[in-house]
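// run 5 | inverse folding | seed 20
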């Protein structure tokens, strides 16, 4: 199979619609990361997504729809969620509702809920309007690998295995959507992202983080397993152990290796003697740069050395979650403020 990277045009959208109707998989740009999409009502197509990614069978997918799609066809929507949809959608927020069972049971891995996302990316919206059906889509990367924020990243993982990548350029958000459980009276963040706990609480009065318990089935993508991992060797140091990171860097260089630091701007600026991938100064910059830098690091470093950012709370909760998981660290405390 030849994999085509195409911009959004009437012809590419018509082909994408045909491919989805035939049970094929199409990768597409969103404002967060690229998605690997299939008809959410087609069992075989959804299973193909799991197989392509090598995704665990108990890790649910998200159903993507365009802004005018009537989600009441798919889920029950508690009245208190209306203000969140009005405020944050289209955008990087996935909302989990009680499901009406109108899509493949494989999408939610047998759970009685369904995750719904309305992306703001013009490419995603054009694709979703063209197919006019819910599209089940995880990030378009191999399971546990770094998420893709360019069409080339998708191609690197799936060349010859999917027919079409709809190219929208680089993704601006950089980390996956916030996933919010809306099945109770208080919203629970299952996966942190650009829509923060504070932002949600300001609209509805309260919002908490949910912690996955040992042995519990994940309710959402990103809750279990190591994710976002670069393929090169890695090391990780806490924010207060920059000197430890430098010693590790010098030891690797002394062995003839090619070490690279991955760190926020303040640390990179303080270590001009070290080759660094600068995540930026603000939480939004770090979110936008994280996956692109992880992909660059795995191509150019013999050892990628992560230094934990100092920031906590807000968007940094999502950044730290991805960074800690990418380096195989315990992400259980990444919501501290």
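// decoded
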């Amino acid at each position: 199979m030849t994999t085509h990277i195409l911009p959004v045009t009437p012809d590419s959208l018509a082909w994408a619609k045909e491919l989805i109707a035939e049970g094929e998989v199409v990768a597409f740009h969103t404002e967060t990361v690229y998605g690997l999409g299939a008809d959410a009502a087609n069992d075989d197509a959804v299973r193909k997504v799991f197989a392509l990614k090598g995704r665990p069978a108990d890790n649910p997918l998200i159903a993507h729809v365009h802004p005018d799609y009537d989600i009441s066809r798919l889920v029950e929507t508690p009245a208190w969620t209306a203000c969140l949809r009005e405020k944050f959608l289209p955008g990087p927020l996935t909302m989990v509702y009680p499901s009406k069972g109108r899509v493949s049971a494989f999408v939610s891995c047998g759970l009685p809920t369904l995750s719904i996302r309305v992306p703001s990316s013009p490419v995603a919206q054009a694709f979703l309007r063209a197919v006019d059906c819910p599209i089940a889509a995880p990030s378009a990367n191999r399971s546990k690998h770094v998420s893709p924020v360019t069409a080339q990243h998708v191609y690197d993982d799936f060349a010859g295995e999917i027919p079409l990548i709809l190219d929208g350029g680089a993704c601006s958000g950089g980390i996956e959507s916030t996933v919010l459980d809306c099945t109770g009276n208080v919203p629970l963040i299952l996966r942190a992202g650009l829509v923060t706990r504070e932002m949600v609480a300001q609209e509805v009065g309260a919002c908490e983080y949910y912690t996955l318990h040992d042995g519990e089935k994940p309710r959402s993508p990103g809750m279990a397993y190591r994710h976002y991992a670069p393929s090169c060797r890695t090391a990780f140091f806490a924010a207060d152990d920059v000197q430890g990171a430098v010693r590790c860097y010098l030891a690797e260089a002394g062995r003839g290796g090619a070490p690279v630091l991955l760190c926020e701007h303040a640390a990179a600026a303080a270590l001009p003697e070290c080759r660094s991938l600068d995540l930026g100064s603000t939480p939004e910059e770090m979110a936008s740069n994280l996956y692109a830098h992880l992909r660059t690091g795995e191509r150019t470093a013999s050892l990628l050395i992560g230094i934990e950012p100092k920031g906590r709370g807000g968007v940094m909760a999502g950044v730290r979650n991805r960074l800690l998981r990418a380096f195989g660290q315990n992400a259980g405390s990444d919501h501290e403020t």
